[in-house]
Amino acid sequence: MEPLISHTGKAVALRRDNVDTDQIVPGEFCKRVVKSGYADALFARWRTQPGFVLNRLASKDASVLLAGANFGVGSSREHAVWALRDGGFTAVAAAGFGDTFRRNAWNNALIPVDLPGPVIRELMDLAESPNGLTVVVDIRGRELRADGRSWTFPVDNRSRRLLLEGLDVIEATLRRMDRIDEYERGRPAWLPRVRQGELQARAAASAASTTNRSDGPGAPGSPAAMRARIAAGLPAWCTGGCD
Fold first, then answer.
1. In terms of residue numbers, what domain contains 226?
2. For the whole model, what pTM was predicted?
C-alpha cells in the first residue's frame, strides 16, 4: 500500500440518504472472492437509470463522492468499499456512516469524511455548479478544504498512522512479529496453539472433506479423507468446518 497523506480530486454529489451497502454493490456481485474488479458492480442497479448522476459526462474522473446522511448502512460486506475504490473514488464525504462501513473504509484506504449535514449540502451545491468543485482531503491535518474554506473531520490515530505510513492491517501486524514471537515463547506448553504448517494441513483436510462429493477416494466418508482429517487434528467424522 502506498502512503496516503492527502488527496485532491473532483467531487460529485449523490443526493441520497441512507445509502446501504446493497445499493452500493448488489449481493450478486459478492460471490467473488477477490478484492478487485468491482467497478462494474458499483451502484449497478442505479446505473441502469439514464439520469443517475454517475452516468453523466460531468461526473467522469470524479474521485470524491459527496453523499447524504448515513452512508454505508446495512450489511457488513467489504465489497462495498472495494467497489468504490475500483470505481475511482478515494474519499466519501457524508453526514454520517455505518460503523462497519467506516472501519472497512479505513482498512482499505477509502477515506470516510464525516461532516455536518449543512456542510455536505453546501458542498453538493458547489459540485453541481457550472464550475464544479475540487476538494482536498488532508489526512495529516484531519481536514477537508474546498472553495477557500476548511472543515475538520474525525480520524482515529490508528487509521491515520496506517494511511500516512502506507500500511494495511496485516503489514502493521507483521511489524510486531518480534513481540508476537516473544509472547508465544512464553506461553505454557499445555495451552492450545497453531504451529507452523498446521494451518495448511487443516485447510487441505477441510478441502478434501467438502469439495469432492463423489463416491471416490476423496469423498467425505472415504478412508483417505478420514485419515487426512485425523492427521490435521480434526475429528474423523468431520465433513465441514469442524475445527
1. 194-243
2. 0.76
What the block records as the C-alpha cell of 31 is: 460471490
> Considering all CA atoms of the chain, what is the largest pairwise distance in Å, rounded to the nearest integer?
72
Q: How many domains does the chain have?
A: 2
What is the grid cell recorded at 40?
A: 462494474
Tell me the sheet residues that pair with 13.
Answer: 66
Q: Is residue 174 domain-resident? A: no
Q: Which residues contact 12 (CB under 8 A, 6 or more apart)?
A: 53, 54, 58, 59, 62, 64, 65, 66, 127
Which tens digits make up the pLDDT trace of 121-164? 999 999 999 999 999 999 999 999 999 999 999 999 999 999 99
Strands (E), 133-225: 134-138, 143-146, 149-152
Q: Which residues make Cβ contacts (< 8 Å) with residue 42, sequence separation at least 6?
A: 24, 25, 54, 83, 84, 86, 87
Q: Is residue 95 part of a domain?
A: yes
Give the residue among 109, 114, 128 at the shortest CA–CA distance from 14.
128
Does 67 lie in the same domain as 134? yes
What CA–CA distance (Å, rounded) separates 83 from 40?
Answer: 8
Q: How far is CA 73 from CA 95, 96, 154, 194, 218, in A?
A: 12, 10, 18, 36, 43
